[in-house]
Amino acid sequence: MNADSGEASSRIDEDQAALIVEVFRMLADATRVQVLWALTDREMSVNELAEHVAKPAPSVSQHLAKLRMARLVRTRRAGTTIFYSLENEHVRQLVIDAVFNAEHAGPGIPAHHRGQRAVRPLADRARAE
Predict the structure, then answer these.
(1) What are the CA-CA distances from residue 92 to residues 19, 107, 119, 121 (Å)?
(2) Whole-angstrom Cα distance, residue 54 to residue 122?
(3) What digits encode the pLDDT tens for the residues 70-95?
């Protein structure tokens, strides 16, 4: 790849690298990954997310505050309820790519190669049935 092309081989400045590290730090927690994964489909309230990830609402709220400070999620108020959604399409794609990459560690053909949504944890599938 040509270094003058401005493509991925170009150097990232230190401030931008620090921001990127912070994004990965936010992804280094299983609860936050589950929350972000849930938000790839639709916006949700804290209570909906807490139920979805099977964690107490105050804990989920703390995770959401960190994700918001890292600009990975945004909020929308409707009356007394605050709804969370992913900040932008880049965050959505990052989460989807991380999940799809993890699927390759398992046996067989990953669900996303079979045209299916990534396999959700057993607890989620049981609640859906």
Answers:
(1) 17, 25, 17, 19
(2) 12
(3) 999 999 999 999 999 999 999 999 99
Q: How many CB atoms lie within 10 A of CB 72?
A: 25
Distance CA 91, CA 94 (A): 5
How far apart, in whole angstroms, are the C-alpha atoms of residue 61 and residue 45?
10
Could you report the per-residue pLDDT of 105-128, keeping only the tens digit for each?
Answer: 877 776 666 666 655 443 343 344
**DSSP string spanning the chain?**
--GGG-STTSPPPHHHHHHHHHHHHHTSSHHHHHHHHHTTT--EEHHHHHHHHTS-HHHHHHHHHHHHHTTSEEEEEETTEEEEEESSHHHHHHHHHHHHHHHTTSSSS-GGGGTSPPPPPHHHHHHH-
